[in-house]
């Protein structure tokens, strides 16, 4: 198929030559795609602004030998400007697209696409605190990728909870018998928040104190970086100010 259309969310861009860009996108049907957008860095470009990070577009592409070429782009979700206007939302979105880039391959995943678009839309609308949206997204994206955490029953032996130790290497909470020496104890409020973030229980998540949110964020960051095997470069820049 020399020409095809798809919906896509822009993950990142790189300059190419004097006027072009290489755009990495997560598409609805074709997985992760790297394509050249010719002339988009010129001020007269008709669709340059539609191909910035965090934007969602209906794109038409010509299938190339090594890189595809974007021939048309129509905006479906202009989230970029709204997100970049707020530092907390921008840093959260940066982690999201980096994570999506890491957990998807060429075959892609419709669930990952819909999850990312939904999270970016939520950030742009300021529906929840950026850190809550980010932590929920990370836990769900990892779950879709096959690393679903458990915050109820023991991750190792399935003993019914509640339990009070979390070991990210083992997949979540563990019972006293399975907990390795020195395993950190976590309070019930933090474990409850983590469960709410996985399930999308926003009333419970938003009722959590700043201290509880901070503890949960630390666990989510550790869990994500353990399973992705190397650090997320954008994660240390996330704004943790109250929102």
Structure described in brief:
The chain is 36% helix and 21% strand. It is α+β, with helices and mostly antiparallel strands.
Question: Secondary-structure map with pairings?
Answer:
Layout: E1 3-16, E2 20-27, E3 32-37, E4 56-62, E5 68-77, H1 80-84, H2 87-103, H3 110-124, H4 130-144, E6 165-167, E7 172-174, H5 188-199, H6 202-206, H7 210-228
Architecture overview:
With 243 residues, this protein is α+β, with helices and mostly antiparallel strands. Helices cover 36% and strands 21% of the residues. The protein has seven helices and seven strands. Strands 1-2-3-5-4 form a five-stranded mixed beta barrel. Strands 6-7 form a two-stranded antiparallel ribbon. The termini are far apart. The mean pLDDT is 91.
């Amino acid at each position: 198929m020399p020409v095809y259309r798809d919906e896509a969310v822009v993950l990142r861009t790189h300059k190419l030559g004097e006027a072009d860009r290489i755009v990495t996108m997560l598409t609805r049907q074709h997985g992760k795609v790297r394509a050249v957008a010719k002339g988009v860095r010129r001020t007269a470009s008709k669709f340059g602004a539609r191909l910035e990070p965090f934007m969602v577009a209906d794109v038409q592409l010509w299938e190339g030998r090594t890189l595809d070429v974007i021939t048309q782009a129509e905006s479906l979700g202009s989230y970029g400007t709204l997100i970049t206007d707020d530092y907390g939302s921008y840093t959260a979105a940066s982690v999201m697209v980096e994570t999506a880039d890491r957990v998807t391959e060429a075959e892609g995943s419709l669930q990952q696409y819909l999850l990312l678009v939904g999270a970016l839309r939520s950030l742009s609308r300021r529906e929840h605190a950026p850190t809550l949206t980010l932590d929920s997204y990370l836990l769900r994206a990892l779950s879709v990728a096959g690393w679903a955490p458990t915050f109820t029953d023991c991750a190792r032996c399935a003993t019914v909870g509640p339990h009070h130790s979390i070991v990210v290497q083992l997949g979540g909470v563990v019972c006293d018998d399975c907990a390795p020496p020195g395993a950190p104890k976590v309070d019930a409020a933090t474990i409850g928040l983590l469960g709410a973030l996985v399930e999308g229980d926003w009333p419970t998540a938003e009722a959590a104190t700043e201290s509880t949110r901070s503890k949960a964020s630390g666990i989510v960051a550790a869990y994500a970086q353990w399973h992705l095997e190397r650090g997320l470069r954008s994660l240390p820049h996330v704004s943790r100010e109250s929102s």
